[in-house]
């Protein structure tokens, strides 16, 4: 059987059998005559079979290339180039994106999308890389401003919370003031007459404490006595202001400390010379003017890592007479030769009698420099963190990388101090800072003291003191082993242990020394 088809259209179809006995013809109208071409079924079938195998793979390959091009390219030209050439354009895309980001970084930030979802929605409708870079920069800039504002607000709220007086402490002060007025025992002499001679005896261990916080003072005294090997050698000299004198006296008169001697004096009981009184008033006035300049600067200050420290320096306690009077320690204790000075936010965990045997080698003050940080300075405790080394007078006299010594626990050789002009130097630098517009150091009590005591500080073994327990991040970095081994721990920072914002993991080290059996403690609902 044979099958004939005309190439010029179906003009004639002839079908015949193999033996030539029969035939069929079909003729159709067509335009012009053409030569016939004969196509065999055996030729068509293999072609169809090959196409059936190849076309699915070709379709899959085209689909993959188109999807990759849509994800990696920002234009149809890029997609076409990738399809026809098969070249990976990731490097070209990276370079194009880099150029767009650099251009966006140098350009002005316009209003961007309000959220990440809005950014995605905009970019799916417009795949231009330059627009993407500018939109991304705008969104990130908005987020950065929000984060900075949140951190600044957190610092301000933390600052306010740390310097308020808890209701329980205010209650305790009022209850004890009432007790002082109605109870003769609360007004009894401190110390008893038989121990008065010990107040100036250099063979005893004298400790000084300047505070108006009754609860804190009780913890310092109690923890020191409980940790001491020879508590009968301890003499506590507590100095407070006039308003706190009565309740402070009432507390220690009605809660006598066995073995140790406690003296409570009010500043109104000192009979200083006119020269000393004038110096104290000048110091307070100058510090107040400097504080006002710092406060005015704070209004325009943006958030930095040092912001919380800066706010801490602006606290009302930095203007407190109790904090500033340590520069007049020789006048506060005129009959003593050596004294260990403690802040009211410390806890004594082990015996510290070795401090009185320490030779200061002619220096005025003994202090810890590095605390819990080993051989390096603790975070934020270098001179550059306290003093402004962009000021020529500071940069010419001090080393910014030098570790600052710490408050909290200090030994003062009062005889050596009286032979120096440290207090006069302190006044001199206060005036220079005021005249410079408060540009020489960050606010706080320690920076001018670092200058005044320069060259007069003897280092104490850093294992004696662990500080920074009032700072969130630092307290978390201190190991439990190092914390328990330290003879003295210092809750320096805003989170004082008597505040609600204190950290529970370290607060117990302080609260276990609170006398919760005392009736005034219970009435004021002070918990351990």
From TrEMBL:
Its Gene Ontology cellular component terms are: Golgi membrane
Membrane topology is: Single-pass type II membrane protein
| Protein origin, superkingdom | Eukaryota
The residues that cross the membrane are 44-67
Q: Which GO terms describe its molecular function?
A: polygalacturonate 4-alpha-galacturonosyltransferase activity
Report the record's Gene Ontology biological process terms.
Answer: cell wall organization; pectin biosynthetic process
Quote the pathway field.
Glycan metabolism; pectin biosynthesis
* SUPFAM superfamilies the record matches: Nucleotide-diphospho-sugar transferases (SSF53448)
Asked if the keyword S-adenosyl-L-methionine belongs to this entry, the reply reads: no
Say where the protein is mainly found.
Golgi
Asked if Membrane is a keyword of the record, the answer is: yes
Pfam families, A to Z: Glyco_transf_8
| InterPro entries listed in its UniProt record | GAUT, Glyco_trans_8, Nucleotide-diphossugar_trans
Enzyme Commission number, as recorded: 2.4.1.-
- Where in or outside the cell? Golgi apparatus membrane
Q: Which UniProt keywords apply?
A: Cell wall biogenesis/degradation, Glycosyltransferase, Golgi apparatus, Membrane, Transferase, Transmembrane, Transmembrane helix
Which family does this protein fall into? Answer: Belongs to the glycosyltransferase 8 family.
PANTHER family linked: GALACTURONOSYLTRANSFERASE 15-RELATED (PTHR32116:SF30), GALACTURONOSYLTRANSFERASE 4-RELATED (PTHR32116)
Its recorded name reads: Hexosyltransferase
Species of provenance: Phaseolus vulgaris
């Amino acid at each position: 059987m044979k099958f004939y088809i005309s190439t010029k259209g179906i003009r004639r179809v002839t079908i015949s059998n193999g033996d030539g006995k029969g035939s069929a013809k079909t003729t159709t109208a067509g335009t012009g005559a053409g030569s016939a071409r004969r196509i065999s079924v055996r030729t068509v079938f293999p072609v169809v079979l090959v196409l059936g195998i190849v076309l699915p793979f070709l379709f899959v390959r085209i689909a993959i290339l188109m999807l990759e091009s849509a994800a990696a390219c920002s234009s149809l030209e890029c997609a076409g180039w990738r399809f026809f050439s098969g070249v990976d354009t990731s490097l070209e895309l990276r370079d194009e994106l880099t150029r767009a980001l650099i251009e966006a970084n140098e350009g002005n930030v316009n209003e961007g999308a309000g959220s990440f979802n809005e950014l995605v929605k905009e970019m799916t409708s417009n795949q231009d890389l330059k627009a993407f870079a500018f939109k991304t920069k705008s969104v990130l800039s908005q987020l950065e401003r929000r984060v900075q504002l949140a951190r600044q607000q957190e610092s301000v709220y933390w600052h306010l919370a740390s310097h308020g007086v808890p209701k329980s402490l205010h209650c305790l002060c009022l209850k004890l003031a009432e007790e002082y007025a109605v109870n003769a025992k609360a007004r009894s002499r401190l110390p008893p007459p038989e121990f008065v001679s010990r107040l100036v005896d250099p063979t005893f261990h004298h400790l000084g404490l300047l505070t108006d916080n009754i609860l804190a003072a009780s913890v310092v005294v109690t923890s020191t006595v409980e940790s001491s090997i020879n508590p009968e050698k301890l003499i506590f000299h507590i100095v407070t202001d006039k308003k706190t004198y009565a309740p402070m006296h009432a507390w220690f008169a009605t809660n006598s400390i066995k073995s140790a001697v406690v003296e409570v004096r009010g500043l109104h009981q000192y009979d200083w010379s006119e020269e000393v009184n004038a110096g104290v008033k000048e110091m307070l006035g100058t510090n107040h003017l400097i504080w006002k300049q710092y406060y005015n600067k704070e209004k325009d200050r943006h958030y930095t890592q040092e912001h919380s420290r800066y706010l801490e320096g602006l606290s009302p306690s930095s203007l407190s007479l109790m904090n500033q009077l340590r520069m007049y320690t020789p006048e506060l204790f005129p009959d003593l030769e050596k004294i260990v000075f403690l802040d009211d936010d410390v806890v004594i965990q082990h015996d510290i009698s070795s401090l009185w045997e320490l030779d200061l080698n002619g220096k005025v003050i003994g202090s810890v420099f590095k605390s819990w940080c080993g051989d390096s300075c603790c975070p934020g405790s270098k001179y550059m963190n306290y003093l402004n080394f962009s000021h020529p007078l500071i940069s010419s006299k001090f080393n910014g990388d030098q570790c600052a010594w710490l408050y909290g626990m200090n030994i003062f050789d009062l005889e050596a101090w009286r032979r120096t002009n440290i207090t006069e130097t302190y006044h001199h630098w206060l005036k220079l800072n005021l005249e410079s517009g408060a540009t020489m150091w960050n606010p706080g009590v320690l920076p001018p003291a670092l200058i005044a005591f320069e060259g007069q500080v003897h280092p104490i073994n850093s294992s004696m003191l662990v500080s920074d327990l009032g700072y969130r991040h630092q307290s978390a970095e201190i190991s439990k082993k190092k914390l328990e081994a330290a003879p003295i721990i210092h809750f320096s920072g805003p989170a004082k242990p008597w505040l609600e914002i204190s950290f529970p993991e370290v607060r117990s080290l302080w609260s276990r020394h609170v006398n919760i059996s005392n009736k005034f403690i219970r009435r004021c609902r002070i918990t351990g």
